[in-house]
Fold this sequence. Notes:
The protein is built from 10 helices and 2 strands; from the N terminus they run ααααββαααααα. Strands 1-2 form a two-stranded antiparallel sheet. About 65% of the residues lie in helices and about 5% in strands.
Amino acid sequence: MPPKRKSGSASAADGDPEQLILEYLTRNNSPFGATDVATGLRNTVSKTIVSKTLATLADRGEITCKTFGKSSIYFPLQNNDDAASPDDLANMDQEITDLSGKADELKAAITSMSKELATLNAFLPTTDLAVQVAVMTDANDAAESRLTSLRRAAEGDGEPLVTAADRAAAMTRHATMRKAWVKRRRMFKDMWDLITENLPRKPVELMDELGIETDEMVGVELASIPEVVPPAAESRKGKGRAPPVVGKGAAASKKRRVGA
Length: 260
């Protein structure tokens, strides 16, 4: 029976360690330590052989080795053939500057166009405008027709829009409501003055607590509502009084009173 081989010897027999390690570094193109390479190869090559092989490849210049204290890092050779020249780098910098300026201009244009788009979107579309124009035209025609009727009625031509009876009824209702307003306003004031006469706190505080609002608080003034006298009340003003006597009758009447 042949003697058993060590794990490292067996790994070396399965493939060329140098080739395996070099391909691994080239494929990953990253810096590795010996332990990292052995782990990456799944221990198909022992760490001892990996360390020796990495050192050998570095000595031959096939890979690069950087030492940091007691640790050594290995990575594949970098191809500098495609490295940009100083002129190329300067041209690239200038191109970057130009593109940055254009980018700023485009951003400003986008901002301006966005504002313009928002302004345009605030207006109604053409189809909606046509509908709106038709609606407003009909409303204008109706207003013109009513205005014509009002003008004719004001000039005494045509049927009046408000009859005398309707006008008298409206004036009567207006006078009744205003009279009730004045009466209730006076009643409230009298009672409120009586209640708050000896009140230890300010009347306005109690009013606020009770939720009472006066005419002034809601912006209404009684004086702004005109007082209207209904036609019926005007006709009753002259009833019950004798008409004034003028002429000879008046002189005779005076004589009789004097003689009496």
